[in-house]
Amino acid sequence: MSASSEATSSGALARAIGVDDIRNLARRRLPKFIFDYLDGGADDEYTRRQNSRSFNALSLIQRVLVDVDSVDTSTTILGMQTSVPFVLSSTGASRFYHSEGEMAAARAAAKANVIYGTTSSAMYSLEDVASVGDAPRFFQVYVFKDRAVTKDYVMRCRSSGYDAMFLTVDCATAGNRERDIRNQLAIPPKITLRAIWHLLNAPGWSMDYLTSQAWSFPNVDGYVDESTKGDFNTAAEWFAGQLDRSFAWDDAEALCKDWGGQFVIKGITSVEDAKIAVSIGATGIVVSNHGGRQLDHAPTTLEVLPEIIDVVGDKVEVLVDSGYRRGTDVIKALALGAKGVLLGKAYLYGLGAGGEAGVSRVIEILKSELERNMMLMGLQSISQITSDCVRWRDPGFLR
Ligand SMILES: Cc1cc2nc3c(=O)[nH]c(=O)nc-3n(C[C@H](O)[C@H](O)[C@H](O)COP(=O)(O)O)c2cc1C
């Protein structure tokens, strides 16, 4: 059996102990140019690396001799009931990692009662994703030059029963992902010698790619020329041409009013922006540096979370993401006042390693880490995770 097909077996997934093991399985199954697109960050990838390291700055306070015979990880985020305080975040184009893409992630999330977010650049339509059970879900938009498109998404999400709308605001332009440039990343893959080499080293993925339906962006099909509907390149060009750099707070406010439900601004790292988000009527924000994929040297979320919570924590739900890979990471964010944590790469590694089963395994690993660590800390429920559960280490510790 080849290394790459073995990675998708249930045995290999079951043997994976932590998210890092799942990452290794994904690295073995995916062609290098796809793995690097998933895993990489902007410029020197300083922020991407610091995201995970920053958790070392906090220690967890252990309380003992508490009855933790039963531990409950369920909670409510933006009015949505969920079995865990982590969410599978919107991460476009998920068929890059597995032919079942967003559907696989949505199914794994629904089975575990975990919130899942899809996006305008998804490779399954928002209606198809909504057809997966009645699990809590959100839709993430960018604002397009053609405002009628964004308005149309609002209507479609309403009639498909989406529980929340997220607006991502940290992508005024694409981050400079040097791994992608070095790999001459082209989507769909261009037949260069380098690409052939990557594909030959990923036979399981290549077979899946060649035998499944051609890639497309169905959420965009209604807005492109009828004759080029379903064509990947047309849709990709449409995206590139539609991203609106002149989009500003008043447009965000209009969208928030138009949607009228739970409305979350994703990609905030400053107190000032958090205050504006509150003033335009957002019901939530995501403190995020986009997993280190956009502005390199943006702060890690732990650096700014406390000051943002201080100022707006009683006015909106504050969620957080970027670098979360362990149950203990999630506990630290909640202890600083976040209502929930979004996962990006962690679950995409699962999708790349083994489709729906891989995503389910990541959810299972993180949930059991959370339960185990809550028991070790003497915590019976999520509401008991407070600022008393952590302390900052001496700054000298990190040097
Ligand atoms: C491959 C990839 C694609 C992403 N695509 C989107 C997207 O389309 N929209 C969005 O709001 N965020 C997107 N993100 C960012 C995630 O939603 C999330 O903010 C980020 O991944 C969190 O950091 P982490 O990957 O370290 O968990 C993407 C992230 C990755 C890794």
Total DSSP helices: 17
Largest beta-sheet characterization = 8 strands, parallel
Termini distance? 45 Å
CATH class: Alpha Beta
What is the level-2 CATH architecture name?
Alpha-Beta Barrel
How many distinct beta strands?
12
What CATH calls the topology is: TIM Barrel
Structural class: alpha/beta
Q: Helical content, roughly?
A: 40-55%
Count of domains: 1
Tell me the strand order in the biggest sheet: 4-11-10-9-8-7-6-5
> Any idea what the CATH superfamily is called?
Aldolase class I
Q: Give the cofactors and ligands.
A: flavin mononucleotide
Mean pLDDT: 92
Q: Rough shape?
A: globular
Any low-confidence stretches, pLDDT <50, length ≥5? 1-7
Content of β-strand? 5-15%
- Please provide the ordered H/E string of secondary-structure elements: HHHHHEEEEHEHEHEHHHHHEHEHEHEHE
In short:
This protein is of the alpha/beta class. 44% of the residues lie in helices and 12% in strands. Helix 7 (126-130) links the parallel strand 5 and strand 6.
Report on this model:
- This protein is an alpha/beta fold.
- It has a single domain, classed as Alpha-Beta Barrel (TIM Barrel).
- 44% of the residues lie in helices and 12% in strands.
- It contains 17 helices and 12 strands.
- The strands form 3 sheets. An 8-stranded parallel beta sheet has the order 4-11-10-9-8-7-6-5. It has a two-stranded antiparallel ribbon with strand order 1-12. Strands 2-3 form a two-stranded antiparallel ribbon.
- It is globular, with a radius of gyration of 20 Å.
- Mean pLDDT is 92; it is low at 1-7.
- Bound molecules: flavin mononucleotide.
- Flavin mononucleotide binds at residues 38, 51, 89-92, 119, 121, 140, 168, 266, 288, 290-291, 293, 321-324, 342-346, 348.
